[in-house]
Amino acid sequence: MARIETVAVHGGEPRKSAHDAVTTPIVCTATYAFEDTAEIFDYFEGRKEREEYGRYGNPTVRAAERKIAALEGAEDCALFASGMAAVTTAVLELVKSGDHVVMTSDCYRRTRQFVRQFLGKFGVEKTLVEAGDTDMLAAAVRPGRTKLIISESPTNPYLRVADLRALARVRDRFEGVNLLVDSTFATPVNQRALEFGVDLSLQSGTKYLGGHNDLLAGAISGRASLVSAIRDLRGVLGGTLDPHSAYLLLRGMKTLPLRVERQNRSALEIARFLENDRRVRRVWYPGLSSHPDHAIAREQMKGFGGVVTFQVDGDMARASRFVDACKVATIAPSLGAVETLIEQPALMSYFELTTEQREEIGISDSLVRLSVGVEACEDLVADLSQALDAAFG
What we know:
- By secondary structure, the protein is α/β, with parallel strands linked by helices.
- 40% of the residues lie in helices and 15% in strands.
- The protein has 16 helices and twelve strands.
- Strand 5 (178-182), helix 8 (187-190) and strand 6 (200-204) form a beta-alpha-beta unit.
């Protein structure tokens, strides 16, 4: 089997493309013509594979799906207009009224919001359990009613690493349960969740897969039967990815292993620098021995990722002075791109909450999340150092 660097460049794309193009062309059409009525019969009766209508499929999108499936080691992949479109469509396909969902409490906040506030409208019950407690997770499963377990690894913002094998063992104890894991922070380069027994892997293509802050996309990868059903529902709900974004995603994925390798290396060096600076109260990074999940990360991941979370020693104002003083890092809410991005979660994601409410859910006012790009690591360390000087000056 080819190594992931080769798969990233060639996976999912035919050797010979339309018009002899080296890159997969953007097929910018909403409708597809049939040669005659006999071809319609061949298509609907499964004798001919082709596209019918833009909401159901597109050759550029399909090439990107095949590449992601190759990177994930999946039988199939379905792409969506955003990561949230991917996860909400998947969940709606996998559960029905009267079913039950178990989700770890550290999943992406918008996923939590969907499960907690919206699924109940459709008669689906939910239970949130603390991450890392597999006994609590197993106890939360309702035999015959629980249809889905949702988790994330690593998580945002504290980069907790779930023991995927342990999650799969819990799933295996019960009939009819699927396990969905958000693998966005890991990428298929650092962690192929399906190899640990996960049924479905979610990627926000907006982040590392695209890697250039210029597209929105989401992907669900896994067994062909599950993905096919989710893709069919995509055609009903309409969260379809456009062909231009698929083209950008294809282009971005060709350099994914190169970018992730650089980000892994730089993030580890930056995490060590921050941990040794007395003006930083604490650092969360799975590559550090001080991280609570360091042992699991070493066993399960090939690299520790490009996000470093840390707490500046001080209040929100001091953390803001530090963030504002950064000259290389850009203040922005996303992650995973070639540019280094920095944010205060208390301001960016939890602004509507009071300090006390944020503390209750573990978000300190002086918490900072750094998404490391591909700039020279020496420049990034120097930038953080001068910003700390400015904040504590």
